[in-house]
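Form 12-C: Joint structure prediction
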Amino acid sequence: MKVLMFGWEFPPHIAGGLGTACYGMTRGLARNGVDVTFVVPHAYGDEDQRFTHVLNASEVEALYGTTGSGADDILEKMSFIHIDSNMVPYISPEEYQTYHEKYVKSGQQVWSTTDAWKQRYTFSGKYGANLMEEVARYAVVAAQVARDLEGQFDVIHAHDWLTYYAGIAAKRISGKPLVVHMHATEYDRSGEHVNTQVYAIERAGMAAADRVIAVSNLTRNIVINRYGIPAEKVVTVHNAVRFAEHDTVAPERGVSDKIVTFLGRITYQKGPDYFVEAAAKVLKRVPNVRFVMAGSGDMMNHIVRRVARLGIADRFHFTGFLRGEDVHKMFQLSDVYVMPSVSEPFGISPLEAMRSNVPVIISKQSGVAEVLDYAVKVDYWDVDALADAIYGLIEYPALAKMFASKGLEEVTNLKWNDAAAKIKKVYESAIEENTNQSK
Amino acid sequence: MKTVCLYFQVHQPWRLKKYRFFNMGKDHNYLDDLQNRAIMQKVARQCYLPMNALLLKLIKENKGKFRCSFSITGSAIEQMKAFAPEVLDSFKELAATGCVEFLAETYSHSLASLASKEDFEEQVKLHINLIKKEFGVKPTAFRNTELIYSDEIGAMVAGMGFRTMLAEGAKHVLGWKSPNYVYANAIDQKLRLLLRNYKLSDDIAFRFSNRSWDQWPLTADKYVQWLASEETPGEVINLFMDYETFGEHQTADTGIFEFMRALPKAILAKKNGLEFATVTEAAKKHQPVAVLHCPHVMSWADEERDVTAWLGNELQNEAFSKLYAQKEKVKALKSADFDYVWSFMQNSDHFYYMATKWLSDGDVHSYFNPYDSAYDAFINYMNVLSDFIIELDKALAAKKSKKA
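Section 2 - Result
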């Protein structure tokens, strides 16, 4: 089975959990005998290419504009894509004709470019001011990719709203079934004040999809209740965690104090302010503990100011954004890991912490709470309970030990192979349904 | 006869390197050696060495009539010794002429005067000893970090035996009064105050190369006319500025060195009725005309002329209080290594980098700031401070157990 997969990030160039999940998932799928063609904007050239063929979407030429002749079928299929006209680069009919003939004659799949007329777009791959444009452009390129790879895939899989237009475009062009993957909903990101544009894209993506995969039952319920997607179309597949092939040596600890860690984007969704308030409460009781907030985000400056105002800045440290080995190192240095997310569709980082033998505290409002027994669960807003839990885990070694060892056992059984097998089943049912429909 | 009092401030902070959480407990070298050396050597090349040579020449040419004053911070002297010893030698040469006065200040260019009397006195004592050692003279006049001044700070300075102190001729303190007279401290009237004429000082320090300034280009003759004219009434004109003005803030190609080369001769021309004096001489020469009331702290920085550039937001307040909370421990330890770190951690510059007021004086702030943001500066400083505290506690515990 072959999958054309659209993502927005892939290790090592990641900003959040999505890239990590995609990596684990594609590996798991490979083990289950599924070939993945992963389309990601702006591949940097040093991706781990063993398990997926990373196709740099930025290097695939997109066709724009209208022509009077030729390849009308493509243009028809592309016409649904809403692109602001002022950003459509000009392309002349002759030029288009030349390209089209060459393409048809050679049957070339991915062509090399020497022609200046081919507009080459570079995706920034980051959430920017012109994100909507990026999403639209990505969709146009996706359509081209789907056409180039015609007959080389059986199903399309799109991750998160950024790639949903791409998924829809690919589906319309190829006629293959589409599976969209909800890693997070707009309600998780923005609370009740959703961005209606994003909401509309999410809804359109799920409506056009043959199957929707939700990363937790929490997310599945949101998809059904808030987006009005038929329940029978929505399947929950919990994320898993990938184990490193070789265990790295634990880094030497610089400080003897207990270390309590928050690791993630410093945004409203992740509840960083509850972590700070709990830290202040714990520090009032216990002197030999340090709190570390690893990550960056739009609430970072606010949090730094709050820490300063609480007068705990000598015990509360910021590392900035961490990647790769540093993330691993941070987990290994931690005694307690806290994920106080206000809304977390899944939350893969507690699993990574548990893998490093670190007891975790997670909010009840996280999807990962559905699959974990050996994690302390608190309401994100209950700062007292959070402080209590932190205190317990650093002051009572027996408790911490129990959570760490049982947690490691538990997390070991959450394998991407199993998650990927479930995803494969979703593919199979989507393909079957698709073939039945077309018959 | 009006007295012209030229005073130059020489300071270089010890800049911290990027110090991450992962360094804590393992890495105790906090300084950005490369940057500190590069900056010191660059400023030496562009400012200290050529300007010192010029001043020496001017002193010799004018046979003792050209006089000026300096204060050089301990941090700057430490860096000269480490990276540009010839600069310190050239200052010693200036000292040997007898026409240059060296003032006392805080050793680390610190905010100790805002922390406590003990911290302040300790910092000043350290600096006096250094100046005595390097230049062979005991300072008789005082200037606080960034001209930070209040009635109380003045009284503390008087209590340490000084009879002369510099302060800003801030409009909000002076009101209708002129900065061109000697004033007295409100609590201890034995302390005489020389107030900076910020208009005439900034004409050189800030506006000299500004082509959109209606007085550009500024020539020595024009400038001396201003000093001599009746539009500048009074007895003493205090021109206080950063020494780095010459060749660094105002680069050589602006003509700043030519301006300074011509200035003494123009000032000393008989018809102008002007003379040079060092800080102590100027204060002795003229009687105080009034008491200056300054209940709130002022400084020479920014439009506000207050201390909000260093202690204006919660980041700065937190870093400041966490730093000075360590004083007793550092004192008890009596270790040269820890004293050294303690000294550079007090550089007011670290707090300046954490400023978040970016309106009128944003340009000046960002010019001097090695960090991307105030938050970066704060995080980095606190990481270093946290490690320093850990090491301090460890060393103290070890000391105690040895005793026991």
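Section 3 - Comments
The interface with chain A takes residues 20-26, 313-315, 317-319, 321-322, 373, 375, 378-379, 382-383, 385-387, 389-390 of chain B (CB under 8 Å). Chain B is about 50% helix and 10% strand.
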